[in-house]
Design a protein that fits this description.
The chain is of the alpha/beta class. It is built from 16 helices and 18 strands. The strands form 4 sheets. A 7-stranded mixed beta sheet has the order 13-14-15-12-11-16-17, with helices on both faces. Strands 8-7-6-9-10-18 form a 6-stranded mixed beta sheet, sandwiched between helices. Strands 1-5-4 form a 3-stranded mixed beta sheet, covered by helices on one side. The longest helix has 22 residues, at 117-138. The chain is globular. The relative contact order is 0.14. The structure holds nicotinamide-adenine-dinucleotide (NAD) and manganese (II) ion. The site of nicotinamide-adenine-dinucleotide has 29 residues, from helix 8 and helix 9.
């Protein structure tokens, strides 16, 4: 067995190639349609090996100011004057170019962030293209989207995104902003800047006018400079609840519009009348998809008491077949944990789970030696007060609890500070309606999980955020 084999090792390795395109050794900042040198640079690594892939510019005050100035100029002189049909043409072009370079984007995303190639290839890149296509269609129809109103763009938008869906989050942010006539300064996450920078190359290929989208790389300080800049009209942030709260405080009284997409602690609720095998597959997908680096991950399972034993046994059996390892291998189910910091956060919460008395289960087998890895993990015997039940772990860790009645499931499921998503598994339509109306969550899936579509608004209740992205609600967030 090689170091990359895990549990079964029963498939021959099928690594996706990375030799059909290049990743530059160094990327400058993308400002005003040009690549602009930064005063310093930082490295981005491949979390499956912890080897350096490339270095990218660290945007400080001067560069952030420059980017906002470029976005303002592009807004005043070009983008706000174009017709919706013209803006739509650029968005269509971007979507098509992204499809043409799909493989390059998928491989880059997997190398920079650690997610399995199967996901970046089949989910991240196609959905990102779908967001550009969808919003291309709206660009010249905004009056029909909001009858009786004369929709106006807001101006310059500052956007900050996380590392779990780097390209997809960039598409969620940029496509509606441009469709509505705004210009953008986007800051990708510091561990996963590469697909946003490649997107900038693609904007150049699409002939997008200079300054309409600017990409500044850096960490939290760069994000802070961007959201607090006085010439930004709207802030769109996706990331942790802690940073979201800090941003909301700093924006108070500024008059800036904002949307915040924050953390989650979704409940998957499975009733005894559900199609059990399908539900088990959905629960596995809900929490182990993208190593659990998903704000809407089904990180809590509520299983009706009468079926708890067989469901847990089936979950363990299925987990035993999951392949953890090389993210570029097409057989891989669970890739690398995005960063050393995230790995230590996961380990700390898992240790707290054990200390507080929950019972841990992990499959046999080893993990690759190099890189950041965590085994798919189940906890049973969890109490509502346990940290693993209350706090977002953002890793492949499922906290399992039981319930007897639908009301008990609802009460327990709603008992967290979050409210982003949820799932219900049952054969009964009446139970679906009871649970979906009772769950305080922005998105609730029934007999499925983690399904996304550009037409469908996404966002949270309570500490999971303010505002929606996608669909008409998402468009409205970029219009006056
Ligand atoms: P994070 O909040 O630390 O970072 C997110 C982004 O904000 C990064 O680009 C980071 O550089 C930047 N940032 C950090 N401090 C900042 C500050 N003070 N001002 C401005 N920008 C700042 O989050 P993370 O740990 O990188 O990402 C994981 C979190 O994101 C999880 O909590 C997850 O639930 C959440 N998330 C939510 C959604 C959603 O749609 N609701 C989607 C993906 C991720
Ligand atoms: Mn990286």
């Amino acid at each position: 067995m090689s170091a990359h084999d895990f549990i079964t090792g029963s498939y021959a390795p099928a690594p996706e190639g990375a030799d059909h395109f290049s990743i530059k050794d160094r990327y400058d900042l993308f400002i005003g349609g040009k690549w602009v040198k930064a005063s310093s640079y930082f490295q981005t690594t491949n979390p499956a090996t912890n080897e350096v892939i490339s270095e990218v510019g660290l945007a400080g005050k001067k560069e952030v100011n420059q980017a906002i100035k470029a976005a303002r100029k592009a807004y005043d002189e070009v983008w706000s004057k174009l017709s919706g049909a013209e803006r739509g043409k650029y968005l269509f072009r971007i979507a098509r170019l992204l499809q043409e370079r799909a493989r390059e984007f998928a491989v880059t995303e997997t190398m920079d962030g650690g997610k399995p190639i199967r996901e970046s290839r089949d989910i991240d890149v196609p959905l990102a293209a779908a967001h550009f296509f969808y919003h291309a269609g709206w660009a010249d129809k905004l009056e029909y989207a909001f009858p009786g109103k004369t929709p106006q763009p807001l101006g310059v938008v500052g956007q900050v995104i996380p590392w779990n869906f780097p390209l997809l989050m960039a598409a969620w942010k940029i496509a509606p902003a441009l469709a509505c006539g705004n210009t953008v300064v986007l800051k990708p996450a510091e561990t996963t800047p590469l697909t946003a920078l490649k997107l900038a190359e693609l904007f150049q290929d699409a002939g997008l006018p200079a300054g309409v989208v600017n990409i500044v790389t850096g960490a939290g300080e760069t994000g802070e400079l961007l959201v607090n800049h006085p010439d930004v009209d709207k802030v769109a942030f996706t990331g942790s609840t802690g940073v979201g709260k800090a941003i909301q405080r700093s924006l108070a009284g500024s008059g800036k519009r904002f949307t915040l997409e924050l953390g989650g602690k979704a409940a998957n609720i499975i009733f005894e009348d559900a199609a059990i095998n399908e539900a088990v597959e959905g629960i596995i997908n809900g929490i182990f998809f993208n190593q659990g680096h998903v704000c809407c991950a089904g990180s809590r399972l509520f299983v009706q008491e009468s079926i708890a034993t067989p469901v847990i046994r089936k979950l363990q059996k299925r987990i035993g077949t999951l392949k953890v390892g090389d993210p570029l291998d097409k057989n891989t189910d669970i890739g690398a944990i995005n960063s050393r910091e995230q790995l230590s956060r996961i380990k700390a919460l898992v240790a707290a789970g054990k200390e507080e008395g929950a019972e841990i289960w992990q499959p046999d087998g080893g993990l690759p030696r190099k890189g950041n890895w965590f085994k798919p993990t189940l906890f049973t015997g969890c109490a509502q007060s346990h940290r693993i039940v209350q706090e977002e772990i953002f890793g492949p860790v499922l906290a399992i609890q039981t319930f007897r009645t639908p009301q008990e499931a609802l009460d327990k499921a709603n008992n967290t500070p979050y409210g982003l998503s949820g799932g219900v598994w049952t054969d009964k339509g009446s139970k679906i309606f009871k649970m979906t109306t009772g769950l305080k969550a922005g998105v609730v899936w029934a007999n499925t999980f983690n399904k996304f579509d550009p037409t469908s608004p996404f966002g949270g209740y309570k500490e999971s955020g303010i505002g929606r992205e996608g669909g008409l609600h998402g468009l409205a967030a970029y219009l006056a």
